[in-house]
Structures are given as structure tokens and as C-alpha cells.
């Protein structure tokens, strides 16, 4: 593992205990310029994870608590007349940062959710005919609680497709939770972390990650999995070309995070569910046979022949 990435992961793990695989995938998403949706029950550390990543990098971190009364202008900003110059002046919204934590995104109205579409896809904000570029890196990390439905607005498929990964942290193991309880007593939290990396470092790592070699057999393996989702009787809506591109970017970054300059089939298997599962819609038969999208995707992927080498 790259020494800078190792330092970043170790810093985050001062707060987030026993979830190294989750941390590695968050870092993977950051290195391929993607956005992450973290969906899990309350109290497992979703917000702490995002805050720990942002505070470990010396960039600008903004958090917005999304509720039905949040307006699009709160997210993207607005223009107002400067009383001195009598000209329109742009006032920044929460999105003008390196790391945007959109807490409980499914509580925002559809209008506010749609305001995130351009900034997530284009990394820019257009207000009154003027385009404002977002800084590099820019990453949206959204959280949502899957067990509450009252007062929430389901994210449309177009919005879900903008997230390169959808991650679930899950409950900690018994021994890990004992450590978490100890950390709670010592008041160790994300706000106590010091930055171990600059935004310039992240930009360099992002360039290096996309130079990772991907053999034709790996690319075909990715496309075979994607194609299988489009023909399976368990899946009503398969993965789009955006999904296959996202998986290719993610496996290159994951290989880089793991310290390799080339992709192996295990990299595809490691991030496949997080990158592809939320892009699927199960058929009635799929819903009756599988617990969730991830289980269905794994079953479909098992029908695809994995390459034996990365050559």
C-alpha cells in the first residue's frame, strides 16, 4: 500500500474501528473522483466516517443536514446584487468545497436532490448563466437511513446512478465495539483528527491511480458481468454503460490502493457489489429469490467465467 494512503487509512481508523475494508473502499472512490452513498441504520458511524476522511485531508469540508425545507440555493449557492457595484455577485452554497457531507439525503425534497445532479456529474455549478468550477478533489458523501420511510423522498434511479459506490457499514464485531466504547469514554472523534494529506497529494494520487494497467481480459470480464445483468431473469433493469465505466475506474483505483500497478480479477470481485448493485432493479422473480440487489448480483456474476490471469 502507498505510504500516503496507509497514513490516511490509519488516521481514519483512530475513529472508525474495525471497518478497514469500508475505509479502503471510501478512499478508492475518492481516488477515482466518485461519490459515495452510505446507507445504514442509525448510530453505526456513517457521519463519523465521512468527517474522519474529510478532516484527514487538508481541504475544505462542508456539511449540510438535508431536510424538506432545504432549498437548492442552500446547496449550490445563489446570486445577489452587490449594493456597491450594482452587479450580480455569487454567494457560495454548501457544495463549494472539497468534501460535501449530505446528511440524510433522502429527507431532502426532489427539487433539492436534483440540484446535486450537476455538481456530482459535471463538478461545476451554473448560476444565472455563469459556470463556477468546483475545486479538485470534489467528493459528495451522502448518508441515508434505510429503516425510516416517514418524511423521506426516495432517490430516483438517475440520482442513484451518480454515486460510484453505495456502501453499508454494518454493526461492528464484539471486540471492535468494546474498543469503540473505550474511544467514546476518551472522547476520540473526527474533530480531534489532524490532516495527514493535502488536496495536492490527493490530485497526484488520483492521476497515478488512473494509470494502473487493465488487461483486455479484465475489461472483458467487467463487460461480461454487466451484460449478464441485462439478460438475467432475476433483473428487470440491468447495469448501464455508465456502470461499466464506473466499475473500470473503481477497480483501477482499488488496485492502486492495494499497492499494485495492475488490476487482477479479485479487484473486480472486491468492489463489484458496491459499484453495481444500486444500479439494478430486480424482477419479481429476483425479489422472491434474493434478499437484496447485492445477493442477486453475486449470483449473476458467478455465471461469468473469471480470467485466470491479468495478462
From TrEMBL:
<dbReference type="InterPro" id="IPR050764">
    <property type="entry name" value="CbbQ/NirQ/NorQ/GpvN"/>
</dbReference>
<dbReference type="GO" id="GO:0016887">
    <property type="term" value="F:ATP hydrolysis activity"/>
</dbReference>
<dbReference type="InterPro" id="IPR027417">
    <property type="entry name" value="P-loop_NTPase"/>
</dbReference>
<feature type="domain" description="ChlI/MoxR AAA lid">
    <location>
        <begin position="228"/>
        <end position="288"/>
    </location>
</feature>
<protein>
    <submittedName>
        <fullName>MoxR-like ATPase</fullName>
    </submittedName>
</protein>
<dbReference type="Pfam" id="PF07726">
    <property type="entry name" value="AAA_3"/>
</dbReference>
<dbReference type="GO" id="GO:0005524">
    <property type="term" value="F:ATP binding"/>
</dbReference>
<dbReference type="InterPro" id="IPR041628">
    <property type="entry name" value="ChlI/MoxR_AAA_lid"/>
</dbReference>
<feature type="domain" description="ATPase AAA-3">
    <location>
        <begin position="35"/>
        <end position="165"/>
    </location>
</feature>
<dbReference type="Pfam" id="PF17863">
    <property type="entry name" value="AAA_lid_2"/>
</dbReference>
<dbReference type="InterPro" id="IPR011703">
    <property type="entry name" value="ATPase_AAA-3"/>
</dbReference>
Amino acid at each position: 500500500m502507498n505510504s500516503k494512503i496507509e497514513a490516511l487509512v490509519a488516521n481514519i481508523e483512530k475513529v472508525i474501528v474495525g471497518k478497514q475494508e469500508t475505509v479502503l473502499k471510501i478512499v478508492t472512490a475518492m481516488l477515482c473522483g466518485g461519490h459515495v452513498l452510505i446507507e445504514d441504520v442509525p448510530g453505526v458511524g456513517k457521519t463519523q466516517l465521512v468527517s474522519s476522511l474529510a478532516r484527514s485531508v487538508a481541504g475544505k469540508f462542508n456539511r449540510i443536514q438535508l431536510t424538506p425545507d432545504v432549498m437548492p440555493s442552500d446547496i449550490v449557492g445563489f446570486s445577489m446584487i452587490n449594493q456597491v457595484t450594482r452587479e450580480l455577485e455569487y454567494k457560495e452554497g454548501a457544495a463549494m468545497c472539497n468534501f460535501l457531507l449530505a446528511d440524510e439525503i433522502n429527507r431532502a425534497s426532489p427539487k433539492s436532490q436534483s440540484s446535486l445532479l450537476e455538481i456530482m456529474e459535471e463538478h461545476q455549478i451554473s448560476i444565472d448563466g455563469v459556470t463556477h468550477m468546483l475545486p479538485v478533489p470534489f467528493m459528495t458523501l451522502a448518508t441515508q437511513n434505510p429503516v425510516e420511510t416517514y418524511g423521506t423522498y426516495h432517490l430516483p434511479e438517475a440520482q442513484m446512478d451518480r454515486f460510484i459506490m453505495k456502501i453499508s457499514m454494518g454493526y461492528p464485531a464484539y471486540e471492535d465495539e468494546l474498543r469503540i466504547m473505550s474511544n467514546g469514554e476518551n472522547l476520540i472523534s473526527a474533530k480531534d483528527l489532524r490532516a495527514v494529506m493535502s488536496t495536492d497529494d490527493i490530485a497526484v494520487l488520483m492521476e497515478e491511480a488512473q494509470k494502473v494497467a487493465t488487461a483486455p481480459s479484465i475489461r472483458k470480464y467487467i463487460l461480461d458481468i454487466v451484460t449478464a445483468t441485462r439478460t438475467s431473469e432475476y433483473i428487470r433493469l440491468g447495469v448501464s454503460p455508465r456502470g461499466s465505466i464506473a466499475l473500470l475506474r473503481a477497480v483501477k483505483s482499488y488496485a492502486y490502493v492495494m499497492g499494485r500497478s495492475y488490476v487482477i480479477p479479485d479487484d473486480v470481485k472486491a468492489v463489484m457489489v458496491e459499484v453495481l448493485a444500486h444500479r439494478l432493479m430486480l424482477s419479481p422473480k429476483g425479489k422472491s429469490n434474493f434478499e437484496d440487489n447485492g445477493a442477486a448480483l453475486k449470483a449473476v456474476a458467478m455465471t461469468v467465467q473469471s480470467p485466470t490471469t491479468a495478462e
